Amino acid sequence: MKMTSSVDDLSSVLRNFLLGHVLPAESAYESHLAELHTVSERFGLTAVPPVLALLKVESRRLGLWNIFLPPSLHPIARGVLGKDASEYLPPRPLSVSQYARLSEIMGRSPAIAPEACNCSAPDTGNMEVLLHQGTDAQQRRYLPRLLKGDCRSAFLMTEPDISCSDASNVSSTLTKVVEDGHRISYRLNGNKWWATGFMDPRCEIVLIVCKMDYSHGTWTQYASARGLPANPFEGQRKRQHTVVVLPRHARGIDAVRPLTTFGYDDAPNGHAVVKLLNVPVSVDDIILGEGRGMEVAQSRLGPGRVHHCMRAVGMAQRAYEMMVLRASSRTVFGKEIGRHGLARKRIAESRGAVESARALTLSCAKSIEEAGVDESLDWIALIKVEVPLLCSKVVDHAVQMHGGAGVEGSGFLARTLVGLRTLRIADGPDDVHTETVGRLEIRKIKTEEGHKRSRL
Predict the structure, then answer these.
(1) 349-368 exposure pattern, b = at least 16 Cβ within 10 A, e = fewer
(2) Pairwise CA distance, residues 192 & 389, whole Å
(3) Can you give the pLDDT of all 456 residues of the chain as single tens digits?
(4) How buried is 451 (Cβ within 10 angstroms: 0-12 exposed, 13-18 middle, 19+ buried)?
(5) How far apart are alpha carbons 217 and 195 in whole angstroms?
(6) Which residues have CB under 8 Å from 21's CB, separation 6+?
(7) Measured by CB atoms within 10 angstroms of the end CB, which terminus of the chain is less buried, N or C?
(8) Which element (helix H / strand E) includes 369?
(9) Which of 398, 401, 422 is nearest to 412 (CA)?
């Protein structure tokens, strides 16, 4: 897939930024975090490595800031930023396919490069939601600091007590109440976990998925007196949930403890168990409206999956290059590792896996551009399953080739293998997306067969 010359230029700029600034900064980044040991240190105000601020300045200077924004949202972001737009937005927006190519480059340093360009999850998805579905007031309140990189955000959906692979199980409640006989408000209660970014000391904004509760007496009486249905979405399975946007430090929102993935705490960003206790919510905090939570949540996932998968390809490509270098620089049993048949087999398999993962993801990006997210659900589910598997295979081969260095916890390979394994669960497990692919393929064939028969 050929990129336009201007995107080629941007790709070259990003690659040089990665090689000249980001990769050399990895040791300083890790050394800073290695000096922090307690939870309060690793997620405190001084936890963010200072080198990151320097990288952000250079990224903005090079025009690499907020390059994730698609053409449809670029004008809205420009309006939100006003006179600061030229400093914080790229000269021209990129299509999904174009940005996918750049995501692969950033994936080579997954902990640093995306944030250095203000292109980190969950901030990118949250910004897209607010730009596309937020009210003017929500955009003015929350977007300027996110677009400028002055704060971070979190997205709270997963819960510890239910199976969130079925999103309709989300059970944190948003109870509708009536105060002073006429004023509508809400109370939010529940438990969340795997709230990525919530532990970050810079996190100021949270988007929370919750289930509507219309059982409070003040509301049922209010609705009855006016001839309104107490639950306007009763029996509508996909209209039971709502997304709200709130300040991270709103009353009743509290971190219970940080979580680790296979022992990694991912400081300073981190993941958290979160308690929601009688959190006050106003009508103005609701995104898009009551009962539209699944619509909001799904809107984050199409392009977001492309970003995740192309970053995974970047990780796998770096691991592949490390493996080939290892094979050509170490000797075992009297000859280079790369002269042994099994090593060559693993290198060949890994090359094929990287190319396959890249091609699948770019095909998905092209489908989203040409047909839209709703008509690309098969591709979106397919890459969610296949790309982490393909990339994990590459990294696993690289780990094997590196021996003890491959499983050493502070190294790139061990961290990457954990990240890719986690990606097979994040945003829904493989099983759910495999089911989706199979269901959509059967439907597609049945539809095609029906068309054929109708023409006979």
Answers:
(1) ebeebbeebbebbbbbbbbb
(2) 27
(3) 344 447 889 999 999 999 999 999 999 999 999 999 999 999 999 999 999 999 999 999 999 999 999 999 999 999 999 999 999 999 889 999 999 999 999 999 999 999 999 999 999 999 999 999 999 999 999 999 999 999 999 999 999 999 988 888 999 999 999 999 999 999 999 999 999 999 999 999 999 999 999 999 999 999 999 999 999 999 998 999 999 999 999 999 999 999 999 999 999 999 999 999 999 999 999 999 999 999 998 888 788 999 999 999 999 999 999 999 999 999 999 999 999 999 999 999 999 999 999 999 999 999 999 999 889 999 999 999 999 999 999 999 999 999 999 999 999 999 999 999 999 998 888 899 999 999 999 998 888 765 665 554
(4) exposed
(5) 32
(6) 55, 58
(7) C
(8) helix 341-371
(9) 398
Q: Give the three-class secondary structure for 290.
A: coil
Q: Look up residue 131 and give its two tokens.
A: 């730009």
Q: How far is CA 227 from CA 89, 244, 408, in A?
A: 49, 27, 66
- 128, two tokens: 């897209």
Phi-psi region of 293 (alpha: psi -120 to 50; beta: other; left: phi over 0): alpha
Residues in the chain: 456
Q: How far apart are CA 406 and CA 67, in angstroms?
A: 33
Closest CA to 164 of 193, 187, 205: 193
| Distance from C-alpha of 423 to C-alpha of 428, rounded to nearest angstrom | 9
- The encoded tokens of residue 45 equal 């105000």
Supply φ then ψ for residue 85, to 5 degrees. Answer: -60, -45
Q: Which of 160, 164, 125 is nearest to 431 (CA)?
A: 164
Report how far residue 342's alpha carbon sits from residue 390's, in angstroms, rounded to the nearest whole number.
Answer: 19
Q: How far apart are CA 146 and CA 101, in angstroms?
A: 23
Residue linked to tokens 């998968």 = 309
CA dist 417 → 42, 207, 217, 263 (Å):
22, 29, 51, 13
Count of helices and strands (H, E) across the chain:
18, 10
From 148, 140, 141, 149, select the one nearest 80 (Cα to Cα). Answer: 140
207 - beta bridge partners? 155, 245
State the pTM of this model. 0.93
